[in-house]
Amino acid sequence: MRPDPEFDPQALTKSLLRRRRQGALATLMAEGGAPYCSLVNVASDVDGAPILLISRLAVHTRNILADPRVSLMLDERAAGDPLEGARIMVAGAAQEGTEDALPGLRRRYLNAHPDAENFADFPDFGFFRVRIDGVHLVAGFGRIVDLMPDRVLTDMTDCSALIEAEPDIIAHMNAEHLDAMKLYATRLAGTSPDDGIWRCTGCDPDGIDLANGLEVVRITFPARVRDPMALRTILRRLADEARGRDH
Q: Which of 64, 68, 75 is nearest to 42 (CA)?
């Protein structure tokens, strides 16, 4: 089979990890080990690993506490035949957030699902991060690839300044740069121009995440970003690029 130069499995997988907000979570029943599948809301950590907010009253949480092995399917939700869209199956283990990691997991999840703030602090709910052991990508005929974690997770080396500044960056973008984010979404990501408001929900060394209601887009940076100064440079460059494109 001839190589397809337009097919980038690494980029597609990273994009699905960042953009999808719901997925099918497969766990093993605590009693008997039978497979169990449920629909869950999903966010992504700064490195791209999935984050879950789940209740200990739910069957899937009881299963995870007995055996943390999980599979999580995220799909493109393309129009028409759903099997024509890309999807990934993440294999790994769901691990409850440690005391040190919990504030970051909470913030990232609530940025993606702000309505969850109404119940996030209920005593039975907890934030879990899925440790990725491998990803199976299916993106059409001849486009089936297995990827190891180092190919789909963002390298966080020397990026502490950016991560520490992320809450301030998001707040600043949403207060001062709504026009620029609409340009990113419509001109760079190709969304339909409308009256919706695009807001920043996350940034990391590889890109920035924008949401307009239930629609989410990922703007990938042309170069890796490690600190706020480099981020400002890249965002200005992307804004100039977006303004230079025809409607």
A: 75
Query: What is the distance between the alpha carbons of residues 231 and 88, in angstroms, rounded to a whole number?
Result: 29
In b/e form, how buried is each residue of 172-210, taking b as 16+ CB within 10 angstroms? Answer: ebeeebeebbbbbbbbbbebeeeeeebbbbbbbbbbbbb
Query: What gap in Å lies between CA 197 and CA 90, rounded to an integer?
Result: 31
Angstrom CA distances, 180 to 187, 196, 212, 222, 243, stand at 10, 13, 14, 17, 9
The domains found in the chain, sorted by start residue, are 9-152 (2.30.110.10), 160-243 (3.20.180.10)
Identity of the amino acid at 110 = L
pTM for the predicted model, two decimal places: 0.93
Q: Name every residue whose Cβ is closer than 8 Å to that of residue 1 and which is 6 or more positions away in sequence.
A: 142
Give me the tens of pLDDT residue by residue for the chain, a chain 247 residues long. Answer: 345 667 899 999 999 999 999 999 999 999 999 999 999 999 999 999 999 999 999 999 999 999 999 999 999 877 777 777 899 999 999 999 999 999 999 999 999 999 999 999 999 999 999 999 999 999 988 899 999 999 999 999 999 999 999 999 999 999 999 999 999 999 999 888 877 899 999 999 999 999 999 899 999 999 999 999 999 999 999 999 998 876 5
Nearest to 231 by CA among 221, 240, 241: 221
Amino acid letter, residue 153: L
Give Cα separations from 15 to 24, 189, 247 (angstroms).
17, 12, 24
Question: What separation, in Å, do the N-terminal and C-terminal C-alpha atoms of the chain show?
Answer: 37
